[in-house]
Design a protein that fits this description.
alpha/beta; 11 strands
Length: 301
């Protein structure tokens, strides 16, 4: 049996336990800070108004991280729909409001310009931005990020093909503290191609200006320590520019960069004395040929 006494205790069997509903806000914040954002959403926020209010505290909303959530589910083509993007946008905007401008980390997928510009205009302290697989994030919102979030240290724009080299230029000029850049692309056809869940027309839009982006990185981001450009179309010329300028590089991922040869990579990276790890392309893949039917072609009849 449970009986509330006058001292704020609850008697359960032979022991006494604190009445959690009477805990101070400071205690609640300390406890809730040990929970993940998702754990707070599905637990404490549903207990009482005081607990919900504590969960809204700006100190508990400095990070918006859905990456583990995405990784815990099989990828779905439904993630690429406007309806799903609307939900992600709404979620991000809610956390931006709760942070009261104190948001420092965003890790999300499938958001759009709408929520990202909303965050850029209200969260100047942003340091980490992961927006992988965001087809409707474009240069428009990235220019806002570059203008308003100059403390940015880590940027992941992998598989977000609406972001062009123009954004890279602005980010490099304005965000002088940027140390990590991830600009990975989906693979093109090869025998080891992993399963990719994405619209076919979107996969066909992959950035083809590998050398141009490499030149921008070399010119405007010499302070980089971590660079990932999987499946980039850059050649030895572009890689040489990056290696000549970015002398602080400690990690480089060139996996899938099929325009680079092993000897070229060795020659270009030989000057990077701080380089600890490099992920090179695989050079022994057999040639794969895909024959596709062309509508109206008599040979395909």
């Amino acid at each position: 049996m449970e009986v509330n006494d006058r001292k704020g205790k609850v008697e359960m069997g032979s022991g006494l336990f604190p009445d959690w509903s009477e805990m101070t806000r400071e205690c609640l914040l300390d406890i809730f800070s040990r929970l993940s954002q998702e754990q707070r959403w599905i637990g404490p926020m549903l207990v009482s108004k005081s607990w919900m209010s504590a969960c809204y505290d700006p100190s508990l909303n400095t990070t918006f991280d859905l990456e583990d959530r995405f990784l815990s589910y099989p990828e779905s083509i439904n993630w690429w729909t406007p309806e799903f993007e609307d939900k992600v946008d709404s979620f991000l905007q809610t956390v931006v409001d709760r942070s009261e401008g104190g948001l420092t980390e965003i890790r999300v997928r499938h958001c759009t310009d709408r929520s990202l510009s909303y965050a850029a205009e209200r969260c100047p302290k942003l340091e980490v931005l992961w927006i992988k697989s965001c087809p409707n994030v474009t240069d428009a919102s990235m220019m806002n990020i570059a203008s308003n979030c100059r403390n940015l240290k880590e940027l992941d724009i992998s598989y977000s093909y609406g972001i062009s080299h123009e954004s890279l230029t602005m980010l490099g000029r304005n965000c002088q503290n940027l140390k990590t850049l991830k600009r990975n692309q989906y693979p093109r056809l090869n025998p080891h191609m992993p399963t990719v869940i994405a619209p076919l027309d979107y996969l066909a839009r992959f950035p083809r200006y590998g050398n141009a982006e490499a030149e921008i990185i070399a010119r405007h981001m010499p302070q980089l320590k971590h660079l990932e450009i999987r499946y980039s179309t850059l050649t030895a010329q572009g890689l040489a520019s990056v290696c000549e300028s970015c002398q602080d590089l400690e990690y480089m991922d060139l996996y899938g960069c099929i325009s680079l040869g092993s000897e070229q990579i060795t020659a270009c990276t030989s000057s990077l004395i701080r380089l600890r790890e490099i992920n090179k392309p695989h050079f022994n893949f057999p040639m794969a040929i895909l024959r596709m039917s062309i509508p109206g072609n008599p040979r395909d009849q």
